[in-house]
User: Which sequence fits this backbone?
C-alpha cells in the first residue's frame, strides 16, 4: 500500500481520544466552540490547574496534549507549529512558556502531559460533573495523596528484601564463576548483576 | 283483659294447623277473588342540573377515575427516569488522609478545599510577581523558613522562585522538586509474557 | 523371683500413672481444643466479673476526623469500643492502638487508665509496629490452620513461632507431626493448606487477648509437652502468660496482634520444610507462608516474586539445636 504511516504524520497522544468531537453549545455555532476551547487551553497553560465542567475539560485536554506534543516534535523553528501555537494561545507570552518551559519539562516524559481528575460533586444544587484539569509537574500541592511510596509499608519492605536477596544470589553466582574461570579467559564474569523488575504497586 | 285469651287463641291456631295438615288445605275455589288495579305511571320529569345547583355555581372536577398505575407513577416516579424514593448510596468511601467521606472516583471534598485554597494563593502570587513579562522559566515555590534545596547551580539557573510568606502546610509534601517523569528503564531484562 | 517381677511391674505402672499424666492420652486434639477454649472463656468471664464497680476514664482521641475526648469504662472498654464511637471505617481498618504516643496496645485489650489514643492502620507514616503485629498474627493463624488442616489420624503438636521478621520474607510456625516421617507436601497439599488458611481468615474473628497465671496456662496446654516446657520460662518475669484466641484456637504469644482476621488479605502457605537437628523433638516441620493486609493491591508478578522467595527455608533461629552448633532454645519461646 502506498500509504504513509500515520504516526509519522501526527504524534500519537497518550490519552484516550474519542472518534468524534463534542458539540459544545454556543450561539456562534462551531466557531464559538473553537473560541471556548481556545480560552480553556490558554487558561490551562497559564494557570496549570483549572476547575471546569467535564465536557469542556475533556475536549480542551485533547487539544492541549496535541499542542504540546507538536511543540516537542518540531521545536520552535517550525512554521506550522508556531502558527498552531499562535492560534491556540490567546495570550502571546504563553507561546514562550510553551517552548521554553513545557517542552523541556515533558521531553523525557513517557506518559500524558495532563491529568484529569473528578472534582467533588456538591450535595445539593445542579447535577454537573466538575473536573480538575492540570498540567503534570506543576508547583501546586498534589490532589491525590496515596502514600504508597512509603518504604516502610509492608509490601515495600517485602519487595525490597526480595530485591536484595536476588542481588545477593547474583553476586554469589558471579563470585563462583570467577573462581571457576580464574585461568580461563574472562568472558562471562563481566556480566553485571541486574535487579529484578520491581513493579511498583499503584 | 281476659288473662287466658292469648293462650286460647294460640291453641285454636294450633288446632287449625293440625287439621289442615291432616285433611289438606281447603280448595282454591273458596279463596277470595281480588283484582289488582294497575295505576297509570306519572309522566317522567326531565333531569336538569338546575334542580341540584339552584342559585349556586359548580367547580371543575375530574370527569374520569385515575388508574392505579398512573396514581403510583405520580407518587413514586419511575425508576428509569425520575425515581422519587430515597435510595441509599453505595459508592461512599472514607478519605485515607482526613477521615471524611467522599464519593468513589472523586476527590475528597475536605482535602480538595484545602488544596484549592492553597493553589489559588500560589497562582495569585505567581501572577503578581510575573506581571506581563514573557514566561521563560519554571516556577519553584518556597515557603517561609525554607532554604533552597541542595541542588547544583545549573538546576537553579533560570528558575523563578516564588516565596510564600507563611509556613508550609503540613499536608503539602516537600518532595515536589523530584521529577515526575520517569526515565525509560535501561535494563535489558525481558518481561515474562506467559503469566497466569 | 516371680514376686520381684510383680513388684517391679506394679511399680512401673504406678509411676507411669502419676508422672506421665494419663489425661493426655485420652484427649483427642479436638477435645483438647474445646477444653482450652472453654477454660479461656471461663477465665475471661471471671476476669471481667472481677472488675466490680464500673469506674470511668477519659480517653483523649487524636486523629481523623477530629480530636475528641471519650469517657470509657475502666477495665472494660477497649480501643475497639472507642473506634466504634467514631465510625465503621475506624473499626474496620484500625489494626493497633497507640496509647500515650508510646505504648502499642491491642484493639481488644481493655484500657486501664486515662490516656491518649491513636488508632493505627496499615498506611500510617511509620508502620513498623503494625507490620510486626500483622506478621505475628499471620504466624499465629498459621498455627490455627495447621491444627485444623490435618485428618484425625495425624496428630499435630504446635511447637512455637519466633518473633516476626518481615525482611526474612515469610512468616513461620514450627509444628511437630510425630507420625509423618520425611513428609514433603505436594503442590496440591500446599494449595489445600492455603485454602484452609483463607477459610479461617474469612470467618472474620476478632483476636482476643488474656493474661492468665502460670498454673492455668499449664492446665490449658496439658496435652502439649512443648508448650508446657515453654510456659515456665515465659512466666518467669511476671508470673503471667499472655494468651490469644481466635475462633476456638488458643495459643501463647507475647503480642500485640492486629484487631481482626479480616485485615489479612492475600495469603498463601508456600512451603513446609523439615527441621534437622539432634534433640528429642523429632519430625519438627517449619510451615512458611506470605501474606499482605487487606486493601493492599499488588501486581501478580510482584506477588509471585514474594511467594518464590518465601519458598526457601527461613533461617530464623530453629527451636532445636543444630547438629554442630548448640543454641539456647528457650529464648525463642520467650520471643514468641
Assistant:
Amino acid at each position: 500500500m502506498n500509504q504513509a504511516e500515520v504516526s509519522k504524520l501526527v504524534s500519537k497522544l497518550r490519552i484516550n481520544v474519542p472518534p468524534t468531537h463534542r458539540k459544545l453549545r454556543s450561539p456562534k455555532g462551531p466557531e464559538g466552540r473553537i473560541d471556548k476551547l481556545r480560552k480553556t487551553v490558554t487558561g490551562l497553560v497559564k494557570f496549570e490547574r483549572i476547575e471546569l465542567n467535564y465536557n469542556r475539560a475533556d475536549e480542551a485536554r485533547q487539544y492541549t496534549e496535541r499542542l504540546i506534543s507538536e511543540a516537542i516534535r518540531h521545536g520552535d523553528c517550525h512554521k506550522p507549529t508556531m502558527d498552531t501555537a499562535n492560534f491556540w494561545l490567546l495570550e502571546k507570552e504563553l507561546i514562550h512558556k510553551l517552548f521554553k518551559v513545557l517542552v523541556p519539562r515533558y521531553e523525557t516524559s513517557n506518559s500524558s502531559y495532563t491529568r484529569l481528575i473528578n472534582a467533588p460533586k456538591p450535595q445539593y444544587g445542579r447535577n454537573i460533573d466538575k473536573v480538575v484539569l492540570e498540567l503534570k509537574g506543576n508547583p501546586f500541592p498534589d490532589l491525590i495523596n496515596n502514600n504508597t511510596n512509603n518504604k516502610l509499608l509492608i509490601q515495600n519492605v517485602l519487595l525490597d528484601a526480595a530485591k536484595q536477596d536476588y542481588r545477593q544470589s547474583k553476586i554469589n553466582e558471579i563470585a563462583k564463576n570467577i573462581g571457576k574461570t580464574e585461568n580461563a579467559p574472562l568472558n562471562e564474569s563481566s556480566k553485571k548483576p541486574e535487579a529484578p523488575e520491581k513493579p511498583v504497586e499503584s | 283483659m281476659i288473662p287466658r285469651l292469648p293462650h286460647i287463641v294460640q291453641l285454636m291456631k294450633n288446632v287449625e294447623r293440625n287439621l289442615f295438615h291432616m285433611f289438606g288445605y281447603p280448595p282454591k275455589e273458596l279463596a277470595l277473588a281480588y283484582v289488582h288495579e294497575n295505576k297509570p305511571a306519572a309522566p317522567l320529569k326531565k333531569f336538569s342540573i338546575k334542580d341540584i345547583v339552584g342559585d349556586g355555581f359548580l367547580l371543575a372536577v375530574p370527569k374520569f377515575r385515575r388508574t392505579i398505575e398512573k396514581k403510583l407513577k405520580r407518587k413514586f416516579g419511575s425508576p428509569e427516569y425520575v425515581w422519587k424514593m430515597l435510595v441509599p448510596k453505595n459508592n461512599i468511601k472514607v478519605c485515607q488522609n482526613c477521615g471524611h467521606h467522599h464519593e468513589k472516583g472523586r476527590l475528597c471534598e475536605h482535602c480538595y478545599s484545602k488544596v484549592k485554597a492553597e493553589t489559588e494563593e500560589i497562582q495569585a502570587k505567581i501572577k503578581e510577581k510575573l506581571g506581563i513579562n514573557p514566561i521563560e522559566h519554571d516556577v519553584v515555590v518556597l515557603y517561609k523558613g525554607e532554604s533552597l534545596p541542595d541542588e547544583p547551580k545549573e538546576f537553579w539557573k533560570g528558575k523563578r522562585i516564588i516565596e510564600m510568606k507563611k509556613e508550609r502546610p503540613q499536608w503539602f509534601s516537600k518532595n515536589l522538586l523530584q521529577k515526575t517523569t520517569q526515565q525509560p528503564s535501561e535494563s535489558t531484562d525481558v518481561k515474562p509474557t506467559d503469566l497466569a | 523371683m516371680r514376686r520381684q517381677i510383680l513388684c517391679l511391674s506394679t511399680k512401673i505402672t504406678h509411676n507411669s500413672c502419676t508422672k506421665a499424666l494419663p489425661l493426655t492420652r485420652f484427649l483427642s486434639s479436638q477435645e483438647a481444643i474445646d477444653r482450652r477454649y472453654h477454660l479461656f472463656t471461663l477465665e475471661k468471664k471471671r476476669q471481667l466479673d472481677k472488675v466490680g464497680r464500673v469506674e470511668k476514664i477519659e480517653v483523649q482521641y487524636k486523629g481523623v476526623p477530629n480530636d475528641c475526648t471519650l469517657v470509657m469504662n475502666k477495665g472494660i472498654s477497649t480501643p475497639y469500643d472507642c473506634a466504634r464511637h467514631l465510625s465503621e471505617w475506624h473499626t474496620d481498618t484500625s489494626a493497633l492502638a497507640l496509647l500515650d504516643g508510646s505504648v502499642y496496645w491491642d484493639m481488644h485489650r481493655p484500657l486501664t487508665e486515662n490516656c491518649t489514643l491513636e488508632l493505627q492502620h496499615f498506611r500510617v507514616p511509620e508502620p513498623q509496629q503494625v507490620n510486626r503485629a500483622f506478621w505475628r498474627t499471620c504466624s499465629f493463624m498459621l498455627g490455627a490452620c495447621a491444627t485444623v488442616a490435618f485428618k484425625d489420624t495425624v496428630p499435630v503438636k504446635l511447637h512455637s513461632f519466633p518473633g516476626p521478621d518481615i525482611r526474612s520474607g515469610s512468616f513461620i510456625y514450627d509444628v511437630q507431626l510425630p507420625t509423618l516421617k520425611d513428609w514433603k507436601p505436594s503442590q496440591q497439599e500446599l494449595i489445600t493448606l492455603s485454602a484452609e488458611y483463607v477459610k479461617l481468615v474469612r470467618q472474620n474473628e476478632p483476636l482476643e487477648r488474656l493474661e492468665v497465671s502460670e498454673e492455668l496456662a499449664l492446665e490449658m496446654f496439658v496435652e502439649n509437652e512443648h508448650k508446657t516446657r515453654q510456659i515456665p520460662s515465659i512466666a518467669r518475669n511476671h508470673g503471667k502468660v499472655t494468651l490469644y484466641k481466635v475462633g476456638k484456637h488458643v495459643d501463647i504469644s507475647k503480642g500485640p496482634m492486629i484487631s481482626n482476621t479480616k485485615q489479612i488479605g492475600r495469603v498463601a502457605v508456600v512451603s513446609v520444610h523439615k527441621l534437622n537437628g539432634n534433640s528429642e523433638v523429632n519430625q519438627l516441620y517449619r510451615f512458611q507462608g506470605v501474606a499482605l493486609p487487606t486493601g493492599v493491591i499488588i501486581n501478580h508478578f510482584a506477588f509471585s516474586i514474594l511467594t518464590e522467595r518465601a519458598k526457601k527455608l527461613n533461617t530464623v533461629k530453629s527451636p532445636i539445636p543444630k547438629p554442630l552448633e548448640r543454641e539456647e532454645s528457650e529464648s525463642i519461646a520467650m520471643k514468641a
Notes: The mean pLDDT of chain A is 87. The longest helix of chain A spans residues 154-180. The CA atoms of residues 24 and 33 of chain A lie 6 Å apart. The two ends of chain A are 42 Å apart (CA to CA).
